[in-house]
Structure formats: structure tokens, C-alpha cells
Write a structure and sequence with these properties.
Blueprint (H helix, E strand, L loop, with lengths): L2 H10 L4 E10 L2 E9 L6 H17 L8 E5 L10 H6 L4 E6 L4 E9 L3 E6 L2 E6 L3 E6 L8
Parallel strand pairs: 2-3
Antiparallel strand pairs: 1-2, 4-5, 4-8, 5-6, 6-7
Protein name: Ribosome maturation factor RimP
Pfam families: DUF150_C, RimP_N
Main location: cytoplasm
Length: 146
């Protein structure tokens, strides 16, 4: 079982789902972030409980070299989409894509499977395979949701 599988198992034991990880450097500190999702939203108590349970695992299997800080949080309303399951969980949401060749698109994610996605925008429906998608993220239309 790889480290992400072990993290996912701990996250699931708290009634949440493992979303992704990232390692960032902020203010000369390395931060290892574990992103989780949960029906009804992620609260601070859940993040703290998962962090407490992950710490012993990460002490034995460090996710990065050197000193780091562990942070457990929600990926947020505007989140990066990398894996097929990320796209599948975002069906029906607004997404921004950067496609190979530099084209930038916005639209509604109509569907997603293991091969790719269908994006609907004012030009119609378009299918993109995952290798064609360089960057993707959900976005919230703040102007129309007040």
C-alpha cells in the first residue's frame, strides 16, 4: 500500500474522502497539504482529528525530505482538477481549462470518465482527453451568486 492509499484509509475512517496532496514552500517553510472532502463540508474538528491520526504515519513515512508542517484542509470551492476522480466529482460545475496549444476555455463540465471530459459552453459540447488538458480548475461565478 503506497502512502496516498494509507492517507486515504485514515481520511475515510473519519467519514471524509481523500482528495489530493501538495507540497508548497511558503515563508521559507515546507508545507505538506492533505486535501479532504466531505458531504456537508469539511470542518476544523475533522481536519484536526485527521491531522492527529496522520502525524504518526508521516513520522514513519515522511512525505518530503527535511522539516515540514502538515496541513489538512478542504480543497475549497475553486479547486484544481488533476485526476479522473476529481473531474468526476465536479460534473455539473463551472470549470476553466487550459488545453494543449494554449487555448483557454470556460464552461460547464457535462461529464467525465476514465478517458476524458465533455465541456459545454456557448460554442456547444466538446470532448477532451486528459492528456489534452494542461490545467483545470473549478471556478465560482461570484458576480451571479450573491
Amino acid at each position: 500500500m503506497n502512502l496516498e492509499d494509507q492517507i486515504a484509509k485514515i481520511v475515510r475512517s473519519h467519514g471524509a474522502e481523500f482528495y489530493d496532496t501538495e507540497t508548497v514552500n511558503e515563508n521559507d517553510q515546507t508545507i505538506y497539504r492533505v486535501y479532504i472532502t466531505k458531504d456537508g463540508g469539511v470542518d476544523l474538528d475533522t481536519c484536526a482529528d485527521i491531522s492527529n491520526d496522520l502525524s504518526p504515519l508521516l513520522d514513519v513515512h515522511p512525505p518530503v525530505g527535511g522539516k515540514y508542517f502538515l496541513e489538512v484542509s478542504s480543497p475549497g470551492i475553486e479547486r484544481t482538477l488533476k485526476k479522473p476522480r476529481h473531474f468526476q466529482s465536479a460534473v455539473g460545475e463551472r470549470v476553466k481549462l487550459k488545453i494543449a496549444g494554449g487555448e483557454k476555455l470556460r464552461g460547464i463540465l457535462e461529464s467525465a470518465d476514465e478517458e476524458g471530459i465533455i465541456l459545454r459552453n456557448k460554442e456547444g459540447e466538446h470532448r477532451y482527453s486528459y492528456p489534452q488538458i494542461l490545467k483545470a480548475r473549478t471556478y465560482f461565478d461570484w458576480a451571479n451568486n450573491s
